[in-house]
Specification:
Layout (H helix, E strand, L loop, with lengths): L2 H10 L8 E4 L7 E6 L7 E6 L7 H21 L22 E2 L5 E6 L5 E2 L6 H18 L17 H14 L5 H13 L1 H4 L1 H7 L6 E3 L8 E3 L5 E4 L6 E3 L1 H12 L17 H15 L5 H5 L1 H22 L11 H17 L2 H8 L1
Antiparallel strand pairs: 1-2, 2-3, 3-5, 4-5, 6-8, 7-10, 8-9
Helix pairs in contact: 3-8, 3-9, 4-11, 8-11, 9-13, 11-12
The structure holds adenosine-5'-diphosphate, 2-acetamido-2-deoxy-1-O-phosphono-alpha-D-glucopyranose and magnesium ion.
2-acetamido-2-deoxy-1-O-phosphono-alpha-D-glucopyranose binds next to loops.
Length: 361
């Protein structure tokens, strides 16, 4: 990336300005994100290259995002929100009305406002933050609850379908493309032995025992923006907003927020389960969602945390066995390290299940 390219992309969005500065931003595994500062008092912008090899229908994805953000913005206006652009993402259309532009290499670029005076965190450091994050994701689900699901496409089909993820995993073992199966055999066996229990969530969805809602589907803690006083501003990274289960969002948030270490911590001794953060997140989440959650959802919140960690473990391992084709990696064995760290977290969680159940039942 360079300044000339940034100016060219902004021009495609109809903005004829010379940027004041730019830098790569965030820690995402899929997209490329750049913070762009503009001259004068104009708001800062984020230019993001969406990964079109992973998101195969960028126009559909952007349609989901615009429907969702417009829906939320309308509610904020009714509530008299003074600064809606800090409470919901604001994407900028190109002059042709589309919410992306293409560059000469066929990449897809999107542009949105940087939420002023915002911070995203890679790890929670207080129960107050955990409570706020829970409230934020519960509130987001509530804001989306009257958005008709039929309007949204499945940006990545079967994204959190455990049976589908299991099939992909089994295929990666059979194909053994990177010749890494032998070294991972005990881990593969362990993850496969959990499959009958873990695919139960998809069974419940298939049978209609757990409802489909509009959900975020990537509720990592770094997808929440806080202000300088740890108050919630908004939920970001809306690429995977689509029909899904509330259980996916609850479970995926605990996957990062309940872990005392990072999702790719190489030192397994550092990986633990933070009961206080779990409890605070659950209380924040339930303060917004207890009115709409069904008994079957409520009953399965704790289980969903185990499910999401198992799913993420097999996703990282699948990518490792396939030769690292999906997630960005920072070093050659990164996906193996991620797999081992998630598996350790899954095991640590087992010892906390009774506690988790007691909080969320
Ligand atoms: P990825 O899909 O790669 O995770 P994100 O859309 O989450 O990309 O963006 C990466 C990071 O950029 C976020 O974790 C956050 O730190 C920052 N970010 C994204 N959108 C905004 C925004 N609208 N305002 C401020 N910071 C943002
Ligand atoms: C990816 O882009 P990012 O880092 O927020 C992935 C999530 C995984 C996560 C693991 C579209 O999210 O599903 O849970 O990495 N996003 C996609 O850290 O696959
Ligand atoms: Mg993100």
């Amino acid at each position: 990336m360079n300044e000339e390219r940034i100016n060219l992309l902004l021009e495609k969005f109809g903005l004829k300005i010379s940027v004041a500065g730019w830098k790569p931003f965030g820690h995402g595994h899929i997209n490329d994100t750049f913070l762009v500062t503009t001259p004068g008092n104009k708001p800062d912008l984020i230019l993001q290259r969406k990964n079109h090899l992973i998101f195969k229908d960028i126009a559909g994805m952007m349609s989901n995002i615009v429907l969702t953000t417009n829906h939320i913005r309308k509610k904020l206006m009714v509530e008299g929100e003074a600064e809606p652009d800090r409470k919901v993402m604001h994407y900028i259309p190109a002059p042709d009305g589309r919410y992306f532009v293409n560059d000469a290499e066929g990449n897809f670029w999107t542009l949105f406002l940087f939420v002023r005076d915002s911070n995203s965190i890679e790890e929670v450091t207080s129960t107050a933050q955990a409570f706020s994050a829970g409230k934020a994701f519960g509130h987001f689900q509530m804001q989306c609850s009257d958005l008709p699901g039929s309007l949204l496409i499945e940006t990545i089909p079967n994204f959190h379908n455990g049976k589908f993820r299991l099939e992909q995993f089994i295929t990666s073992v059979k194909e053994n493309r990177a010749d890494r199966v032998a070294s991972m055999q005990p881990v593969i066996d362990r993850l496969l032995s959990l499959a009958p229990e873990m695919t139960r969530l998809q069974d419940m969805l298939d049978r209609g025992e757990v409802p489909l809602r509009i959900t975020h589907n990537d509720t990592k803690i770094n997808n929440v923006l806080f202000d300088d006083n740890d108050n919630i501003l908004c939920i970001i990274d809306l690429d995977t907003v689509m029909p899904g289960s509330a259980l996916f969002d609850f479970g995926d948030a605990i996957r990062t927020l309940g872990n005392t270490a990072a999702e790719d911590e190489p030192d397994l001794a550092k990986i633990g389960f933070n009961r206080e953060y779990y409890q605070a997140f659950a209380e924040g989440y339930l303060s917004e969602s207890s009115g709409f959650l069904t008994p079957s959802e409520r009953k399965n919140l704790a289980f969903a945390c185990r499910y999401m960690v198992w799913e993420q473990t097999i996703r990282f391992l699948t990518d490792y066995l396939n030769g690292d084709t999906y997630y960005k990696i920072a070093y050659p064995e990164h996906n193996r390290v991620r797999t081992m760290a998630q598996l350790k977290y899954l095991e640590v969680m087992e010892g906390n299940l009774d506690f988790m159940e007691s909080v969320t039942r």
